[in-house]
# Entry
Amino acid sequence: FLRFIEALHHNDVGQMIEHANTALRMAREAGSRWSEGLLLSAVARAHIEAEEYSEAKILIEQAKQLGSKIGVEVITNDALVTELALLYRQGDGRALEVLRSILVRSIKQGFSNVSTWRNLEWANYCSMALSNDIEVEYVHELIQKHNLLLPRDQLAPDNWPFPIKVYTLGIFKL
# Structure
């Protein structure tokens, strides 16, 4: 699994798929349902990165069902985060409701991170949440805790918690 995470952070799709599938096979052989649930999301995430969206969707549903069946919130939350990555990547408007659900669940469960966390990705999710006034206080906490920054070419929503804000009544130059 850790090799999958390393490959994710290096954007090595082939290694992501290989390591996630190997870990999933091992979890199933060991009968570790908890591990299997998390790894279903990992394999789905690898398929998202490979733009194999149909396969990813099937795996996400399997992970959500398993998390619900065995009552493990972290499995369900990881599955929802993976679903958010899929919907966001596809430009699907349902991403907003999935994000809202993740944030509400995260507040309730005390989550502030996921195994597939990537700062740029979460900066975009936080921007989307702030732009839609979703769990603003919690999103501010996430941004500050993880030192999230948007890409320089992306405008931040007005309620982004910048350490310093400058207001002018005219032209401003540096």
